Amino acid sequence: MTLDEKLGITIGTGQLNSARRCVGDTKPVERLGIPSLCFQDGPAGLRLVKNVTGFPAGLNAAATFSRRLIRARGKALGEEWRGKGAHVFLGPGMDIMRNPKAGRAWESFGPDPYLNGEGAYETIIGVQSVGVQACAKHLSANTQEHWRYGASSNMDDRTHHEIYFYPFLRSIEADVASVMCAYNRFNSTSSCHNAGLIGPNGTLRKAGFKGYVVSDWGATHDSAQENANAGLDMEQPGDYIFIVFGGNKLRDAVNKGEVSQARLNEMVARILAPWYRFDQDKDYPPTNFDAQKKDGSGPRNLRVNVRSDEHTALAREIASASAVLLKNSRSTTDGTPTGVTTRGLPLAKERIKSVAVVGQDAKMPNLNCSDMNECNDGTMSVGWGSGANSLEFIVPPIDAITSFLGSSASVTSSLSNNLDDGVNAARGKDAAFVFVNAMSGELAAYTIVHGNQGDRNDLDLWWKGGSLVERVAAVNNNTIVVVHSVGPVYFTWSNHPNITGIIYAGTPGEQTGPSIVDVLFGNYNPSGKLPFSIADNEDAYGTKIVYNSLGFPEIEYTEKLLLDYRYMDSKNIRPRFEFGFGLSYTTFAYSGLSIRQSGTSYVVSFTVANTGAFAGVEKPQLYLSFPPAAGEPKKVLRGFEEVILNAGASSAVTITLSERDMSIWDVVSQKYVRPSGTFQVLVGSSSLDIRLDTSIAI
User: pLDDT tens, 529-558?
Assistant: First the structure.
């Protein structure tokens, strides 16, 4: 290849390039049959593109606690990328939710590194199974939007390996094609020219990564030689904000010998290897859309429809499976679980003759919002930023409820956040559905959305949502609340006696309406589990968003391994709803815990029985308590399963603890080491609802 051809592979064509079809791309090498490589947002569905599916976001995928559904979601995303001729799926996001207000946390899988790692692994396996490259992001410790273009995430080596790098380790084990380096600095050095992270002897390569490192869009700083020699393989978008490789800078560095030909060849080989490995050189669809014309206009938008009945059904199933039932004060006609519901959930359609649907969050959102979905004036199905997805086919809750009930019940709506109107709509109805939300997103061009600049200002519901809930509950004794949110919010009203049901529905994607109807009326028994804890004050989380600083801040991660439930356990804080919590319309019993050794692993076995009146799905979780001298949190998640059971049925469950699951990062030897001593094995329905326990002596 010529120097020009090599440079064209390693440098994006430019944000300001009118010929660019994707959010990022490279120059083709036509004489070798290498097309322009198409990089496209976002991790929950194609952005800026028509005729695609808007899937539930990463945090909802995590709430399913289902490897099956997470992998299926990844495969469906890959199929849509392939159908549109996009080579690289810019995801999954695996940014740890260090603080619950973090703007982009909803794109990833929550505050727990194990759950993030499993979410990343299954997504990548699914995406790449259909020949699409995945791009794991953002390396490393990209945990807030304020000051993100230069803030430094400072931490010790053990914290980095066990918390923030662990999902990337699982991504490497899934053979991920590429990794995106982050905007922020890591331990005071820019992530994209941090040799300790991405260099030949850096954390990423020592963990076995063989793919290429691509910059986040505009995340490069300083000289071309510093970035290339530190381990950066590709700069995107190639212009805009900072130009490091572009503008002939990489060319000059190569010509001067500041970047060797061998290093340039390595960069190109790393980029092209996945293109060949995934057979993208053979019958791969050409790019058939134009991301610069999101309305689908223009000759380069061929309007190829990659939607399918299967994808729509999957999006709906994941949205339902990720709905977390937080409260259910159910009563029935005969006082037994098999009776017909009179209050609470699931609602009995035949008994409900009048309902109120209250809240702006129930109505159709703004379909003509910005490229980044920087609006919150309807139902909230996804956050804003590059992780947003298509709202083209969204079905809002009001439409789905009205359609489902048909002529069987009257529906009165108050689709604003006016408190008095909500009260008037709810008074005297058989049931009142209150839809409330809280949103966040990407800083981008320092965008402010209703007073929030990426990260949320607080953990309150938007639009005085808590007051709306309380006012409606004061006049309706069968008030059911649905919360769409990007993370934890305050639930100070949850114990109100007239609130009979609460569902945390998160960011459920385009099938938000049908999926919540399925749950409300019992067509889908909720099985979601919280991928974070919900506390009554921010101090319970032990971390802060740095909003104000004289220049880019040095953010010290002094909490180390203690995030979310780990921190709360250490301080004996009991949250309102704990990590892993989620009710069902049925009940489950656990029994028969046993452990056997298998090589260096331990196989944990137990039985789960459905002891209630409905078929349902339980998500048993395994937590591990390390020997005290190990310096680990009181307990850490190390396994989970999905158990599908008819009423009265039971099933044997096995979860394997690998040697690494029982190890800590040893800074001296630079590897995972299993400590000696007694481990406690805890099995239960949430981090605080432990049903079975035993010990292992090492």
Answer: 999 999 999 999 999 999 999 999 999 999
In a domain, 564, yes or no: no
Asked whether residue 115 is assigned to any structural domain, the reply reads no
- 212 within domain boundaries: yes
Sheet with 601-610: list strands edge to edge. Answer: 588-598, 601-610, 650-657
Phi/psi at 604 (nearest 5 deg)? -100, 125
Q: What is the pLDDT of residues 212-264, one digit of tens each?
A: 999 999 999 889 999 999 999 999 999 854 567 777 899 999 999 999 999 99
d(CA 223, CA 245): 8
Q: In the prediction, which pLDDT does 636 show?
A: 98
Give the Cα separation of 251 and 247 in Å (integer).
Answer: 9
Cα–Cα distance, 116 to 531 (Å, whole number): 9
Query: Locate tokens 């590897």: which residue?
Result: 671
Q: Which residues are tagged catalytic? A: 216
CB 91 within 8 A of CB 42: yes
Q: 529 and 641: one domain?
A: no
Angle between helices 309-321 and 67-83 (to 10 degrees): 150
Instruction: Name residue 483's beta-bridge partners.
Output: 436, 504
Both 268 and 327 in one domain: the answer is: no
When pLDDT is cut at 50, 70 and 90, the band that residue 445 belongs to is confident
CA–CA separation, 103 and 457 (whole Å): 10
Q: What is the pLDDT of residues 459-482, one digit of tens each?
A: 999 999 999 999 999 999 999 999
Q: Note whether residue 167 is domain-resident.
A: no
CATH code of residue 365: 3.40.50.1700
3-class DSSP state of 492: coil
Distances (CA, A) of 281 to 3, 33, 344: 22, 8, 56
Per DSSP, the three-state class of 407 is helix
Number of compact structural domains in the chain: 3
Structure-derived torsion over alpha carbons of residues 212, 13, 49, 448, reported in degrees to the nearest 10: 90
φ, ψ of residue 48 to 5 degrees: the values are: 65, 25
For residue 557, what pLDDT is reported? 98
Preceding omega of 676 cis (within 30 degrees of 0):
no
In 3D space, the residue among 358, 357, 364, 369 whose CA is nearest the CA of residue 380 turns out to be 364
pTM over the 0.90 mark? yes
Residue 78: helix, strand or coil by DSSP?
A: helix
**Contacting residues for 173 by C-beta, under 8 A, at least 6 apart:** 121, 208
Which tokens belong to 511? Answer: 């099938």
Q: Which domain holds residue 669?
A: 588-697
